[in-house]
Amino acid sequence: MIRSFVPVFFVVLLYGALAAAAGPGTIETRYCTIESAQGDRTARFVAANADALVESVAGRLGLEARERMRVVIASDRREFLASQPASARVPDWAAGIAWPRYNLIVLRTNTGGDILKTFEHEACHILLGQAFGPDHRVPRWLEEGLAVMIAGQWSLQRMSTMSMAVLTGRVLPMERLARDFPADAAQAEIAYCQSFYFIAFLKNRYGDDAFRTFLGEYAENRDFEQALWKGYYLHWDEIERMWLDYLKVRFSWIPIVSSTGFLWFAASLVFIWGYIRKKRAAREKMRQWELEEALMADECSGQTRH
Q1: How far apart are CA 187 and CA 141, in angstroms?
Q2: What is the pLDDT of residues 78-134, one digit of tens each?
Q3: Which domain holds residue 252?
Q4: Residue 101 in contact with residue 134, Cβ under 8 Å?
Q5: Smallest Cα–Cα separation from 32: which of 114, 113, 127, 163?
Q6: What's the N-to-C CA distance of the chain in angstroms?
Q7: Does the residue 292 lie in any domain?
Q8: Is 254 domain-assigned?
Q9: pTM
Q10: Is position 149 within any domain?
Q11: Statement to judge: residues 269 and 226 lie in one domain
Q12: CA–CA separation, 26 vs 155, rounded Å?
């Protein structure tokens, strides 16, 4: 009993020493250093899942985690902004942001979103940054499309957004999305949707193996056009032309009717139609009763005269 107790005792002491060395509010995992207010439950929750998520993301990308990630959990927007690198521009709508140059992820709590999905999304950026290095600019649509797909952030609302963008002629040029995303929240959402569906188009049309070949070649040689040719035997202008044709066929009025907004609108119309129909039926019933009462009055008066 004493023999089994001694090793456990030393493990507890060692764990306590490591935690103290890491500092209050800091949790060390295999791949991450997670920082937050001391005793923050969200940080402990992220820490318990971080390593498995990093390995999952790395496996799906066909890459590896080369350096540790620093993950800061911010409890409000003030703390979120204060945790960014100096002079960083952060969109108002951001729930998380990654800085691959610094291997830094900053997550904001209490946004209403799934913080583990946000972590997966940002971890994807960090792993791509580690693979390509700080001096190579990966097309933004490639980073964001992969991050949205890997984190499972697709939704019916995003299908509706993409459909409306196609039908109203608001599809953004992919060359623009290679450089940066719009600051406007509505336009940024279109950019995220386009990026996701562009990656989905490549994977569905040519398969996962071709995409892995493209991404591996691109990470190794930093030559985008050459990587496209190695993966797909196509040039960028050919792929972009097929992508635009795909959009016209893939997105029509049908996905719009599956959006949450449309369903609420349709439900409201059904309710209004039912209400009007009920009111008409009630008025018709009242009219019938009035006619019946008039007939009964005539009969009664006729009987009295007789």
Answers
A1: 14
A2: 999 999 998 888 888 889 999 999 999 999 988 878 999 999 999 999 999 999 988
A3: 156-282
A4: yes
A5: 127
A6: 115
A7: no
A8: yes
A9: 0.72
A10: no
A11: yes
A12: 34
